[in-house]
Structure formats: structure tokens, C-alpha cells
Amino acid sequence: MSNFTLPTAEGNLIAFFNNFSTAMDAYSAALGFDAGDEAACKDAYDDFLADFNAAETAKAAYRGAVSTKSKQRKTSSDIVRDYAQQIKNNPAATPEILTAFGISTTPAGSGPVVTPTNFTPNPSANGICKLTWNKAGNAAGTTYVIEYSANGSSWNFLGTTTAAKFTDTNATAGVARYYRIRAARSGNNSPWSSTIAIYLGGSSLSLAA
């Protein structure tokens, strides 16, 4: 086997093979080579080029599959995490039930569970409303439960989070919508916050509970 040095970068190697095959076609007769030699050099170039292109296509497909998987992982994780939060906040969820769902029963943080303060709505013209609040010193791991109402008296579950913000994407611009929030941790719940409302007379207001 010859110790002739070839380019190491595959792109450069392809260019070298192509040039070598072209030169073989041009000078084979002068160098005493025949059609079989020309074909061998051309096949060496064509076969490697085909496998190189197949590998590049596979790499692109792999990267696309990984990207798709990563996006789906986030979507699936968000769905399961939301249900897990709801289950943890459900008074009927015994330690046995929590264990069955793979949810840790170890208390998160310590100290009293108190009502969040400065609960504030930030509605936009397209109906999306960003809610923010102050955690009021609640320990890490505290869950915040948000409810909404069309009339301020009949309440519906909206969502949970451990952050100090939540976005309601289902409000309707110009239609009154009420919110309230409370903190929950280790089976203990704070009192509900004061009620806040949006789109009352074209503005967002804070109302007494």
C-alpha cells in the first residue's frame, strides 16, 4: 500500500478524488493505463461521494429528529408538570396516590403559607392577560393556584405555577374577567387574595375580595 498522503478533510478528499479521476481520463494513455484503470479511479470517486452524501443526509435527518424530539420533550413535560401540580394541590391526593404518580411527598420548604400580595393584571388588546404578584415570603416550592370567573362569584380553575407570574391566553378583549390567587404547599392553603378584574368599562381594576 502506498504511503502517498491524501487530504484528511472529507470535502477536500472528494475534490482530490474528482481531480485524480479527471486526470486519469486525460493522461491514462500516455502513462500506459487502460479503460479498466480509468473506471477504477472513477468508481473510487463515485462510490465515496455517494456514501459521503448519504452520511450527510443521515446527519441532517438525525439533527432534525433530535430537534423535533427536544421540542416534544418540552411540550410533554409542560403538560405532565401542569397535571402534577394540580394533583399535588388536590386535597384528595393522599401520599399513596402521590407516590403512584411518582410525585415526591417530601415537604418543599418550611414556614407559613401566606396569601400572595400585589396581585396585578396586565391585559392586552388581543385578550392575553399577564398576571403578576409578590410571593410574600412563601418558601421555595410553594405553588400558586389561580382561578378565574366571569362574574366574580362562580370560580373556575385556571392554572398553577411556582413562579410569580402567569399568562392567561383565553381572556376575551372587552369582556369582564375576574381573577384570584392563593398559595399552596404541603397540603396547606393560604386564604384567597383580593379579587382583581379586567375589561371593566374598558380598563383593568382591582376589586375587594
3D structure, described in words:
The protein is of the alpha+beta class and 209 residues long. The chain contains three helices and nine strands, in the order αααβββββββββ. The chain has helices at 10-31, 35-89, 95-100; strands at 117-123, 129-134, 143-149, 155-161, 165-168, 177-185, 188-189, 196-200, 203-206. The strands form two sheets. Strands 3, 4, 6, 7, 8 and 9 form a six-stranded antiparallel β-sheet that branches. The radius of gyration is 33 Å and the shape is elongated. Residues 204-209 have low confidence and may be disordered.
Task: From the structure above, extract its key features.
three-stranded antiparallel sheet, 40% helix, 24% strand, elongated
Give the ordered list of helices and strands: HHHEEEEEEEEE
Average pLDDT metric: 88
Give the distance, in angstroms, between the N- and C-terminal Cα atoms.
88 Å
Largest sheet: 6 strands, antiparallel
**Which structural class do the helices and strands define?**
alpha+beta
- The helical percent reads 25-40%
- The number of distinct β-strands equals 9
Rg estimate, integer Å: 33 Å
pLDDT < 50 stretches? 204-209
Q: Give the amount of beta strand, in percent.
A: 15-25%
- Discrete helix count: 3
Gross morphology is elongated
